[in-house]
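ok so dumb question maybe but i'm new to this and my supervisor (M.) told me to 'just get the structure for Asparagine synthase family protein' and walked off. so i did the thing. is this what she meant?? sequence i used:
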Amino acid sequence: MVSFFKNALTAEPPRSHYWLQLISQPPSAEILGLTAGEAIYGQFGGCVLDGSRYVAARDHLGVVKKFYTRPVKGELVFADSFIELLPYEQPIYALPRGKVVEISADGLRELANVSPAPFASSLQLQAQTLLLEQNYAGFAQLVEFRLAAVFDCIKAAENAGYTVFVALSGGLDSSTMAHYAKRFCANPIAVTLDLGGSEDAEKAQKIAAQLAIRHCVFGVSEDEILAAVEKAPLLCQDFRDFNVHCAALNCLLAEKINQWAGANGVSAKRMIITGDLMNEFVCDYEEEIVEQTRYYRLPRIGKKALQKHLIGGLDTSDREWGLFAQYGLDCVQPYAAVYDLYEAVPESLLSQPEVKPLLNSHLVPGDILQHIPKSKLRAQVGDKKSMGVLGLCHKHGITEAVFKACLTSGLAGAETRIPIMMGRYSTETLLA
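this is what came out, is it supposed to look like this??
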């Protein structure tokens, strides 16, 4: 099984690559060969035994989750989910983001910093100049170059036998992904959940038809949503309502894809592309109020500070990559390759209500853009009448406390060992 793809973004120092890791571990030689002269974009994470030590690496955004604990002196246990490590009753640590580290009986040492920071600084200056000139088409060209590298990897995976699905909600982010999938892949399949009473399915159908790609719309009932909400905390290893609500929808989508694929003789090697991450990059989030109860609270800070807060919080969001993996689906989040370009967006532009279409409308052709609404409701909200997953959870009293109890069921004192602090995973202190 092919498990690892990469594309060079720059050949000259500092060298830059996009890495796409699928469910399997990346090749050990790749991790062992990483140096501080490389900047790695994308999604990857893993560890390999090298003599008496482990060498580990993880992507800068923390898309891929990897954890370890030390049950007894000299012993290390690794897992993709911290829930598996809770029974050891020892501190649990995540692999640090954007670094290659050595993990041994003595502790944690940094071997190389492979975050894109050195490479990103010059690109960010270029992006800032374009944005100050209001040259949004020029900015989109920078984004386009990166996305093309990602989709070249996706195309290689399709050539290796993967069936490519695209989560299509009808908004700009997912429609852009569908457009690129059409450009680069031979037979992409768009997939949409229909919660009932939502315009998502209708908009998605128009966009898929315009793109001339196959489109599957999966209807779901309230009972199916509630069943997904019940299992979501364990699958996304989280208790916070926004992430659990998102994860519940992804549970349903994964189940529906596998049911459809099984009935239609589709290859067991399946990949799903999502438009996740862009909302963090452009601060496209709002709190929701249901019967005077406030959900999805955001800190009262400026937009640049909020952007940093949201991007940093991706470290502890496992609502996509890890969740889909548990259904045998490889999840690809192409926007992981462009986060640093959006970090260059100034506060004045981030504060504009139309920041997303200003920045990203050049990524899709006009005949697609005409079907995309300027704004759309969150998928987990559905429609303002029922409020979708959020409304159902509110109606049935399913709160964050319920989700946290689900995570730690049967494990005395486990709540205190959940390694999430201030929206970040706990990491072991680096040795000098």
